[in-house]
Q: What sequence folds into this?
């Protein structure tokens, strides 16, 4: 038999590239009316109320509910998060507005569904620039769970980020006389209009990208470095602390000797010390436990019984996060600021299943997906002066509620030129207000969308035409699809979801890749990145 003659890969790429045609995205346009409202509100005089609590907002990165012991299903000991929850309120059905980092943070910091202003996906600067590059990505970056989407091109990648028309929580509080500091991961744009110091923060130390190294390996001999067999991990390690992953302090590159989680904690405590005589807002978005899997040996050694080195490193990342949360709580307590400070903890989305280091069980799915494992996250608040302690609140609440809860606490009237989608949670958890905070919650990720109303949740995938309906009260794992047996509920929820989606903008920039999730029944769901 004659041997099979194979064309060289380079020839195949050229042949395939000749068939590739790009789709070019239009220019990103900011809502002019909202931009004028943004400028007018910040320029307007505001009465300063006498009672203004301090605010500390701590955000974890890719931390699932099953990763913390503040919930019964939690499998990792997190004593400091347990303490935060015991001293305040733990939300049993706390949701974020997206199952991936950047859009989730956009909703969290504005108190508005990010789909209203087009921040629906991750900012990108890795669109294929030519046909050969596109076909190379299709052939060599795709795996079973990842695929490169249709060839999209975007000319204004430096304009991807939280639109300048949007007001952040830092904008709102800074205008009320708060000192505002951010220490950690930004991921809401990297050019001047999008940088933290132009979005309400007096000071910023951190990085603009989705990730950075926790430490430069050459600088320390007490690190455990674990490399994962997936393509994004290669980008992270190869990029190091360059470009948007560079650690900056007020625009100037710094090279912290401390492990990055410890460094951000140190800076946050120093900021608290410097501003303890005035109201302050500290935004502390840690990278833990997002990749890269890089930990201090002392944290790694705390789990000698874990045989899997990848899982063991993940446990160490969670431990490092919990230790830093404890340091912040201790600092507030030691300085007499405990009663006058609203501390909020939340994760930006559920655990990342592609790391093979965590699980979101009993919930299905994880990061990127609109199943509960991607959207229902650890969420707690502590404010001894105004919130009860040892409360476990199980009605659905949202990251959108952070802005409205803080605004009410600070006596701040929100601008009237735009809808805010959150509610003040304090009267609900104090038992002063009957009913539920939200009748419905909504999500959209390109052609995939979801709604929760009461115990019912509907998920739709416009690419595959899958529709699933779940009763979360009896089936929180989303294993029993009721869509076929309850068509009236499917129709009603679909109509409500469509009505909400009609109020939103199209995404401001195109996707690059899609992530596949196979549910318990074997159906494929695709999510854009």
A:
């Amino acid at each position: 038999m004659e041997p099979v003659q194979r064309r060289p890969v380079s020839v195949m790429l050229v042949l395939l590239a000749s068939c590739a045609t790009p789709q070019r995205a239009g220019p990103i346009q900011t809502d002019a009316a909202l931009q004028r409202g943004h400028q007018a509100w910040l320029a307007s005089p505001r009465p300063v109320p006498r009672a203004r609590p301090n605010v500390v907002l701590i955000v974890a990165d890719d931390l699932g509910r099953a990763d913390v012991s503040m919930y019964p299903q939690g499998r990792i000991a997190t004593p400091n998060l347990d303490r935060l929850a015991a001293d305040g309120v733990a939300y049993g059905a706390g949701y974020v507005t997206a199952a991936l980092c950047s859009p989730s943070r956009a909703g969290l910091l504005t108190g508005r569904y990010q789909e209203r202003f087009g921040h629906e996906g991750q900012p990108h600067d890795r669109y294929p620039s030519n046909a050969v590059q596109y076909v190379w990505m299709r052939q060599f970056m795709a795996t079973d769970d990842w695929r490169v989407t249709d060839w999209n091109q975007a000319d204004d990648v430096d304009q991807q980020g939280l639109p300048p028309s949007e007001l952040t929580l830092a904008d709102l509080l800074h205008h009320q006389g708060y000192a505002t500091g951010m220490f950690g991961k930004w991921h809401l744009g990297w050019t001047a209009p999008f940088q933290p110091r132009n979005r309400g923060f007096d000071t910023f130390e951190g990085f603009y990208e989705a990730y950075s190294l926790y430490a430069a390996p050459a600088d320390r001999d007490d690190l455990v470095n674990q490399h994962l067999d997936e393509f994004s991990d290669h980008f992270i390690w190869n990029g190091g602390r360059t470009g948007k992953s560079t650690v900056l302090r007020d625009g100037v590159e710094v090279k912290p000797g401390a492990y990055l989680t410890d460094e951000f904690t140190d800076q946050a405590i120093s900021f608290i010390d410097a501003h303890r005589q005035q109201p302050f807002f500290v935004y502390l978005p840690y990278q833990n436990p997002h990749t890269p899997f890089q930990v201090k040996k002392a944290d790694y050694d705390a789990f000698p019984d874990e045989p899997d080195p990848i899982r063991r490193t993940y446990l160490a990342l969670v431990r490092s996060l919990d230790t830093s949360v404890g340091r912040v709580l201790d600092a507030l307590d030691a300085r007499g600021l405990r009663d006058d400070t609203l501390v909020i903890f939340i994760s930006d989305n559920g655990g990342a299943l592609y790391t093979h280091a965590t699980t979101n069980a009993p919930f299905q799915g994880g990061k990127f997906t609109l199943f509960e494992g991607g959207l229902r996250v650890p969420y707690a608040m502590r404010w001894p002066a105004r919130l009860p302690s040892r409360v476990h609140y199980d009605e659905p609440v949202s990251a959108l509620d952070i802005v409205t809860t803080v605004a009410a606490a600070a006596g701040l009237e929100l601008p009237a030129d735009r809808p805010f989608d959150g509610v003040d949670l304090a009267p609900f958890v104090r038992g002063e207000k009957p009913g539920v905070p939200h009748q419905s919650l909504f999500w959209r990720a390109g052609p995939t969308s979801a709604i929760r109303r009461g115990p019912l949740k509907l998920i739709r995938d416009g690419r595959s035409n899958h529709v699933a309906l779940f009763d979360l009260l009896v089936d929180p794992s989303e294993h029993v699809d009721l869509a076929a047996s309850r068509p009236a509920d499917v129709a009603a929820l679909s109509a409500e979801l469509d009505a909400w989606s009609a109020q939103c903008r199209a995404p401001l920039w195109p996707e690059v890749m899609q992530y596949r999730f196979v549910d318990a029944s074997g159906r494929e769901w695709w999510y854009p990145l």
Notes: The longest strand covers residues 54-60.
